[in-house]
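Posting this for the archive.
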Amino acid sequence: MLYLFDRISDFTEEEYNRYISYLPSDRLARAKGYRSMTDRKACVIAYLLFRLGILSEYEIRDAPSLILGRYGKPYLQEYPHIHMNLSHCGQGIVCAISDCEVGVDIQDWIAPDNRLVSRVCSSEEIERVRESQDKDRLFTAYWALKEAYIKNIGIGMSLSMKTCDFSSVKQNKFELFGKVFSLQFDRAYCLAVCDNSKYINIRYILKQEFEQLL
């Protein structure tokens, strides 16, 4: 399941101060390390989505230990059968919970320039972006798909984004590289998820639902 919160402007500074005490020390330090309040809120909300997800799906109320793999992907130490991934942008925060490896990415719309396209895209993708009537939408979709795939396989940026080519994609749900992908478009963001075996449904979360964690 994908747990998506896309009303970050509704999450007040008072609520941020209330929930920040709920975070473990490492997440608390990470949240406080951001300069902008929007990023701090997103860091807190991402953790709340994770806790809400494992409570909803596995009835786990106590905070599990999160450990990082070699390239920084988080894993649940006490529950190796549960896989999770987090992402946030200026307009939304998402947590993916699955019974197999999963990667998720959410991006604000990106207006690509030639240098950025050349750095991220394969030659076939570059041509498609150049020919597209909606370059922002297509490029952002490519970016989110690549991030979701790289996060799924858990090797960080040791894999160049140019090497995973999505130029053949024509639908919002498809299989590629032995994985299952989904794309979701909103007026403010693009969301991509990469799962090993299945399409994942989205649950839109309201801030009132975080109350059950306290």
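The first helix runs from residue 13 to 19. The beta strands are 2-5, 66-68, 74-76, 83-88, 93-98, 102-108, 173-176, 179-185, 189-195, 202-204.
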